Amino acid sequence: YPTWKRTLARRARESQVKRFCRAQAIQRRLEEIEVTFRELEQQGIKLEKLLRAENESPADQQTQWTNQLLYLVQKKNNLMTEESDLMIAVQELKLEEQQCQLDQKLRSYMNKEETLKTPEDEKAEQEILKQLVEVVNKRNVLIQMQEEKRLSEL
Questions:
Q1: Which terminus of the chain has a smaller tally of CB atoms within 10 A, N or C?
Q2: pTM of the prediction?
């Protein structure tokens, strides 16, 4: 087993582990965001009830509650933006994994001697290459979306 093949296999495993760790971190953060959403929702409900019972409270207290409610809405919007970014990152990770798998399949066909390749092998190689290009294009679209979003936020 040549050294370069072992190196490629090791690098593929390392990148797979990195993707797995990133996916776990994203999943944890999505769960944290969900919990925070629920907490913000409960706080918002309490503030709305306090504001609806406005006859019993002074005006400065109502202003304070309104400001707190607006702060909660702003915080929720920020979390929704972060959640959206994380969902894009999840899609990107899936495409990255798919690209890695297709790349490995393509390498196995390309490493075969040309004289030993059957027409089916050549057809499969072309199909994998086509799928690989599609995955790369999808990743490019995601990156463009992220860039447009970043520019619009500026």
A1: C
A2: 0.79
